[in-house]
Design brief:
Elements lengths: L10 H20 L8 E10 L1 H7 L7 E10 L4 E11 L18 E14 L4 E12 L11 E15 L4 E16 L5 E16 L4
Antiparallel strand pairs: 1-2, 1-8, 2-3, 3-4, 4-5, 5-6, 6-7, 7-8
């Protein structure tokens, strides 16, 4: 039998696995037995895909929007509801123009999502995931107002900068958002790399 911890082709993988087990065990043993009492927070957010559109030199990928959340959180986990609006260029072929091939009014959605978040690194960072339903806000040649779709978002690295009492500025330099705002016919699919800036406020007391 080959000792995979000391030799053989799988030795590096085994060492990495062992290190992960040790790190997880140490982290679990360092966690306090009790968490802080749950508290309520609200935040307002502005988001845009300007960074990815700039890097890819694709202005048609540009989108922007605002949202708000209501969060119930303790030191380990938070649950929340979010109301989000997102706007993006609606591509329409303009056969009467030689210069502007695509000429369309901006299309937008409003979305209601539910999510979970987890603070880490001493509450200086957090990740979150949410999903929910969206509704089209405008009629275009390609999309109809009122269409119901879905939305999901994942933000792995949110940087929290506390200021004052139970307030924080949160920056998500890169988050991943999947929008399916129209599921009829040929589905409309938008995969966005957003930058999000949030201002968070504690409300009320512990419950």
């Amino acid at each position: 039998m080959v000792d995979t911890m000391t030799g053989g082709p799988n030795a590096p993988i085994a060492r990495v696995a062992a290190l992960i087990v040790v790190a997880v065990s140490s982290s679990a043993s360092a966690q306090p037995e009790a968490t802080d009492p749950p508290q309520w927070f609200v935040d307002v957010q502005a988001h845009s895909t300007f960074l990815s559109a700039l890097l890819d030199e694709e202005p048609l990928q540009m989108s922007y929007g605002v949202s708000g959340r209501v969060v119930r959180r303790n030191s380990r986990v938070g649950w929340y509801l979010s109301l989000d609006t997102t706007w993006w260029p609606s591509l329409q072929l303009d056969t009467d123009s030689e210069e502007e091939v695509f000429d369309g009014a901006a299309q937008g959605i409003v979305a209601l999502t539910a999510g979970i978040e987890h603070p880490y690194f001493g509450d200086r960072m957090r990740f979150l995931f949410d999903a929910g339903l969206s509704v089209m806000l405008r009629d275009t040649r390609l999309d109809d107002r009122g269409r119901v779709g879905t939305l999901a978002s994942f933000r792995p690295v949110g940087i929290r900068v506390p200021f004052g009492d139970r307030r924080a500025l949160v920056i998500d330099p890169l988050s991943f958002t999947l929008l399916l705002p129209d599921l009829t016919g040929i589905p409309l699919l938008l995969f966005q790399f957003r930058t999000v800036i949030s201002v968070e406020f504690g409300v009320g007391g512990a419950s």
